[in-house]
Structure formats: structure tokens, C-alpha cells
Amino acid sequence: MPGITGIIRKSHYPSIEKDLDAMVAVLCHNPKSKTGRHIDESVGIWLGWASHPGSYSDCMPLVVESDDVVILFHGEHFSSGNEAGDRLGEEASRNATTLLSLYAAHGDRFYAALNGWFSGVVIDRRQRRVTLFNDRYAMGRIYYHETEEEFVFSSEAKSLLRVRPSLRTLSPEGVAQQLRYNCVLGTRTLFEGVHVLPHAAAWLFRCGKLVSKEQYFAFHEWEQQRELGPDEFYHRWAQTVTDVFPRYLSDGNRVAMSLTAGLDTRLIMAALRERNRDHRVYTFGGAWGELYDVRTARKAARVYDQQFDVIRINDAFLSNIGDYAAEAVRVSDGCHDAFGAHDVFFNKIARDIAPIRLTGKFGSEVVRIRRLLGTVGYKPGLLRPQMQALVDGLPHFQATNADGNHLTRVVTEEISWHEYGRVVVEQAYLTMRTPYMDNELVKLMYQAPKGSRAAGDLQEMYVKDFAPEFAAFITNLGRFASPNPTLTSMAYYPFWVLFKIEYIYLQATPHWMTRLDRTLAGLHLERLFGGRQKWEAYRIWIKTHMADFVQSTLLNPQAEYTEYFDYATMSRMIRQHVAGTHNYMREINRALSLQLIHATLLKA
């Protein structure tokens, strides 16, 4: 992912600029990436960056008129249109130069007025200080390694691993958390000696030394707001959606929308209405059958005659699935897993449609209640004893912060820890936006009446009230099936049953069903049970298109993943899965991801 990187220290060393260039090179996943560097030994910083061409941050560095302050910014800021020197709407200048007016108004604390996902550095030569900051959700992630001599940081951990070989070691505690929760919690990472900035961080350095770790925003400020009544809340919520969502279309035809069959993207289209006409839309499809996403998105695109594309799983993906799996792990610094291969494939193609992707990500989590982070257990004998003890010693995720506010946990833990890996893969190839993480919307959701998020009807109400043309066709779970709420509620259940059948067949298949599926292979049951709402057929691909890759990678007793997994047990699982007698998709994914971390990050 494009981003920022740097070395903060008191003194120069002979290869420091070579190290800086190497750290910047790691950030370039797009051959057209723009790069640069800024060195100021008077304050002890060697700074570099990479950005997508034409992106919001493709104008670095920002220099205040006096030349005494330099700002490096990565990410995007979505203003309310009320800021000095800024304008709202599709005609607005969409690059980071508008931040100079924010700095003029707020000084060194301008980052507290920012709205979006970002990270950055402010260099103040007058006061000989440097401030390293990120957004209030920590989605503009910064990895760092600190010693007595230096503070090395980057948007990607692999930049640090490239120039500090001593960091190329996995943390047993980090691995245990990854195995238990499918992510690493808090400021810990997979790598020994590497941490991440907490959310809303503003860390101050003087003369190359870290002197304070400030948090410029605390979520209890939003948690303590008064609860609104149902009518007042809905009125304010609808107005906020109407005002906020169009901001995310800025940059004109450089933005395309990725659609699904659900409420999250339906609400975006309803809020944009006539503005939809000027933007292409697309959705992702499987290798067989036409997904409900595709059929429904096509109907949505016809409302305003938008150009519609389908990006499908095809032979080009399946024949190179191992390479895509390795890239998903490498690009995400091990935060995404091997079975995120499709995210690399899809977003590389999406970049050719438009460099900015507008999505409905996290609408279900912020506006409704959908949990992302679960807790995984492992059968005895699969993990090595020491790792098994570490994993077993970790509590259920819900017990890690049992008294925490649910919405705060969603936006600062579940999304920023669990979903970060997928987001960073997407951001590596294009700019990804979602209006559901806008500060105004998230802040308002803390005032929702009790039960409002659980009811999950806000988006449906808005579409019916403000853009009924988008209520003319049902969602993937039966919304808009009928004007009668009872009939709509009843429509949910057959869709849910079909979804569960598909999920069980493609992923959570019990062993007996796996054997039956092998017996009936000639009937191609995947075309009967799959391809409606899900297309991720990794259970099947492991024994077909991925078989050689999985076996050559994992059936080696010297493979590094065997430090954590029992080789004999995993070998048996792989052979049984490839033979079609058992389903060990989850276990193979975890072992394969760990092995690819070693191959692409530690040994590369």
C-alpha cells in the first residue's frame, strides 16, 4: 500500500539514505506509484513516501509559506465544506493542498479536525520538533520499531524488515493471537519488536527523540452524548446521510462504485440519486452461476443508466491462484490470509475501471449490528504443545474488553484489527472509500435509540422515503420484498436458508458431506448449491487448482510453519482434503498463511 516511511534519530549514519530509499521502494505495489523523500537533519528526520498517481496525497510535501513547517500526509480528508479555504462537492479541488488552510486555522493540532483514514508527519523547524499522527480509527496504520538510537516507522511492516534484519522474527504471542482471533490485537504485531501506533495518536519528537505519546481524541467523548428519541434520531440520520455520502464522489469520473445486493450499497445509491449517472459501477462474480449480487447490481445500475461491469473469477485467476495467495499475504504484512487471493485479483482489475473505489464497507457494522471478530479453537494434536498452550490461554474475544462500548469496539477493534488486512490489500492497488466510517455518521450513531441498530431498518427506511426507485427490487436477504413489513420479514428466512446451505457446501462442509460430494462429483453439485450469494470455493480449489501449490508448500517437514503446527497431523489433513474425504479448509488456510509469511516477508 502506498504510504509514508521514515527514520527519526539524532545523528546520520553512512547508509541512512540508502535505507530510506529501500523502505520507500517497498511501498510501491503499483508500477506507476509516485515517490519522494524529505530529509531534515536539523530535526533528525529522514522521510519518504509513495502515492497512487493523481491521488489525494499526490502533492507531497506540503510546505507552509514560511518554509518553517513541512507536512507529509497520506490518506484522504473529507471536509464538511465549512472549512476555511475548502469547498464541498464534485467540483472541489481534491488534493491535500487544502490541508494548508486547516493548518493555518488550527496549527499543529490540525489533525484533530481531519475526517478520514490517514497518517502523517508535521515537521516544525522553528521549534525543532516532529509530530507523527494517524486517524482516530487507526486505519491509517503506522508500524514502528524503537531503540535508544532511533525510531523507524512505516505504513508497511515490510519496510522495517527490509532495513532492520533483526526484526525478521515472528512473535509467538502475535502468532497465537492470529491463530485465535484471525488478527493480532492492540498495538502488537506478528513481528518481534514491531508495534503499531494506537488510534488518534500524536507522538512528539524533539531532536530525534520521542518525548510524548499524546492521544488527541478519546471515544468516550462520543459515548457520553445523549440518546435521541426515534423521530429526532431518524431525521438527523437521514439528513446526515444526504449531506455526507455525496462527499465520497469527489474526483468525478475517477470514482466507480462496487455494488452488492445488500442494503449498504443500496443506501449509497439512494443518497446519490442523480449523481449516480456520471459514475461506472461494477460487482464481483464467481466462476459458475450468476450471483445475486450481479443480478441485483445490474438492476440498480439500470435506474440511472450507469455503465455496469462484472469482474469474474476466471481461468487467469485459478491458474495463478498460488501467486495471488502469496501476494495477499505479502502486501498485507500477514494481516490477510492466503485465501484472500481473490482480493488481489479483483482490485487489480478494478483499478483499470477507476482508480477510486466507493464501497459500502462497514455499513452493516456501524449502522446495524454485525460482528466481525470470532474466537477459533483447535483440536488437540494440530498445534505444537507450546503454541497450543499460548492459544488456549487466550480468552474469548468478547471477554478481552467485556465492558467496552459496543460501537467503539467495532470501529476501533473489529474493523481496525480484523478487517485491516483486507482493506490494505485493496488500498495497495487503488483508493478505497466508504462513507460509513465518516466521523459525522459514526458520531451520530452513538446517539441512536436503544434497539435501533439491532432493528437494522434505518437504511431500508431511507431508501423508501428518499429514493423509492431503489426499493423496487429486493436485497439478498429479502428487504423490499413487499410493502407489508410482515411479508418482508417472512421473506428473510428462505434467503437466509439458501445462504446457509451455500456457506455449508462451499466452506463449512462436514466430513461426511465432503465424501458424498466426492462420490457425486460428476453431477457438479457446486453449480446447484453454489454461485447464488457466495463464490469463494476455496474448499474445492484446494483439491483442484490449488492442490499442487498447497502440497509443494506445506508437505515439507522443514517448512517453517512446522514450528507452530504438528507436521504429521497437518500432512494427514492435507492429503485427506485433497483426496476429497475431509474438509480441513480452515486449518490449511492458517498453516499456508504462516508459511507464506515466512516465504514472502521474513526470507524475502
Briefly, what is this?
The protein is an alpha+beta fold.
Protein traits:
17 strands; single chain; 3 domains; Rossmann fold; 6-stranded antiparallel beta sheet; Glutamine Phosphoribosylpyrophosphate, subunit 1, domain 1; alpha+beta; globular; 25 helices; 604 residues
How would you describe this protein?
This protein has about 600 residues and is of the alpha+beta class. The protein folds into three domains: about 5-170 and about 185-220, Aminohydrolase, N-terminal nucleophile (Ntn) domain (Glutamine Phosphoribosylpyrophosphate, subunit 1, domain 1), CATH 3.60.20; about 225-360 and about 420-470, Rossmann fold, CATH 3.40.50; about 480-604, no CATH class. It is built from 25 helices and 17 strands. Strands 2-3-1-9-8-10 form a six-stranded antiparallel beta sheet, covered by helices on one side. It has a six-stranded antiparallel beta sheet with strand order 4-5-6-7-11-12, with no helix packed on it. Residues about 85-95 have low confidence and may be disordered.
